[in-house]
Amino acid sequence: MIKRLRELLNDPELDYQSKSFVLLSVIALIGLFLAMISGIILGQSFAANLSVFVEFVLFSAIFLWAIYRNAIRKAMLLITAFLIFVFLPSAFFTSGGAAGGTPVWFAFTTLYVVMTLSGRPKKFFLICNLIVVIICWWIGYTHPETITEFTRKEAFFDSFFTLLIVGVVMTALLSYQALLFRRENERVSNQKKEIEELNRAQNRFFSSMSHEIRTPINSILGLNEVILRQDDASDEIKNDAGAIQGAGKMLLALVNDILDFSRIEAGRMDIVPVQYRLDGLMSEIVNMILLQAKEKGLTFSAHIDPDVPSVLIGDEIRIRQIIINLLNNAVKYTESGTVNIEIRSVETGDDRINLIISVSDTGIGIREEVLPILFDAFARMDREKNRKIEGTGLGLSIVKQLTDLMDGDIKVDSTYGQGTTFTVTLPQEVSDPKKIGNINIMDHASRNYIYESMFTAPEADILVVDDIKMNLMVVKKLLRETKVRIDTASSGHEALDMTLNKRYDVILMDHLMPEMDGIECLECIRNQSGGMCTDVPVIVLTANVGGENNELYKEAGFDEILAKPVSGNSLEETLLRFIPRDKIDE
Ligand code: ATP
Ligand code: MG
What we know:
Layout: H1 2-10, H2 16-42, H3 46-68, H4 72-94, H5 102-116, H6 119-142, H7 152-229, H8 235-265, E1 274-277, H9 278-295, E2 299-304, E3 309-314, H10 316-332, E4 338-349, E5 352-361, H11 395-405, E6 409-415, E7 419-435, H12 441-444, E8 461-465, H13 469-478, E9 485-489, H14 492-501, E10 506-509, H15 518-527, E11 538-542, H16 548-556, E12 560-563, H17 568-578
Parallel strand pairs: 2-4, 8-9, 8-10, 10-11, 11-12
Antiparallel strand pairs: 1-3, 3-7, 4-5, 5-7, 6-7
Bound molecules: adenosine-5'-triphosphate and magnesium ion.
Adenosine-5'-triphosphate binds next to helix 10 and helix 11.
């Protein structure tokens, strides 16, 4: 019996009210038992003793049935009804009316109902309890002969014992409640820790996955770029290489989206404001989208209001990401017609403006009823219709969250079957209020891919450190046209041997390598006694970029950060900044 009670009180599945019932019932049974004994000792009337005895037996029976047959809810209702309609009135009339212990029992019943029942039964029994009290008191007052009066001594003893019992019950109940509260608190804080740990694990997983995927994409895109550059390659080879480039970039965008999404979820996406020019930002984007739009036979137009200030301060990378996402969607979800982007600004005072970007298309449109979930992660509309269109449904969720992080706003206006306009408003600081003027960004966009190296530097010496041979080959091939002299090392130790004997102009260093990683290797190079490269610029070239990693690299003392997969363009651009001027023939 005690074992079963303990089981029930510790059962996490059992709700608080049922547990209170079990506890209260046990105490009430003990109370009834004591009442029975004290009644006999005090020499109460036979009727009073008998009624307490019958109550004790009945209550015990119902309680045993409840805990062994799992009928706690039914028993709760039954016992409450029994208390209110049988026990209390009979006790009132047989045990001294208002002068005995019954008033305390009535108060106790109210507590019992509140603690064990909920919803309608609770209201019902509370009202019943009140009505029974009124009726008992009224009858007792108007017909005193119906009450078996207590002697003065009996009245004092009865109310004393009742107070004692109810006092014990309340103490037990409140202590138990405090215990449950403490346990619940512990459970919540443990759960919180678990969730945090899970979150960290998920983020670790995403970043390591993104790193693992980026590494092979680096080889694919890098070597593919080398193929695209070859003048003697046939058109077919170039077409195929173009397709590989498209697919590789898509895969990369997907990995980036997943990584960004997990970063935003973990609250680790930082907005980094920098100075930027809208025309520069836009011509790059237009270049990219124009090609896609042309392939689908769409008319693409872009327009920047001449009154927009020429230099702004904001997170250029994230703004680019927002615009590209919206334009990609516009092209993706439009079969024929036009895709258009308009940018204008509204002054908001104090060197600040609202940049208003609207992207519109004449595509399939979005149904009104799905607009509320449009910005939810993984939400894709019209699945049946869009079955053939690739996507994960992360794009707009990221756009929305980035906009929110920049204190901006995004609105959508769409007519199903006719087209959609997304309008993003982003507060930006003005760095140079001079107006951008009339520019035609469409002219900036070049059409064909003609590679020409930015510089040649046959006298420059570069060391590339990476544990993956393929990555070394990619860098070597991408830089072939620049004629720089390239040495390679496939571990930190090997690199240190080389820096001891030769002075390089620039070192490109991978981050994650077995044994000695890039950061340790950089430290050794800087402090190498007798080393020839203690002050040479070292650029980290890694798939492990973004978020706190960039901070890590800056703190470690790298001169620049380059992300894998690296394009020939950014590789050359960066080297051009670090190779000594006198070694460069432009
Ligand atoms: P991805 O994550 O690769 O961008 P996606 O394009 O499916 O995948 P979102 O960019 O988040 O995901 O867009 C969510 C959904 O909203 C899309 O699946 C599409 O149904 C709808 N949608 C977004 N932009 C447009 C648009 N310009 N016209 C019509 N429907 C759109
Ligand atoms: Mg999208």
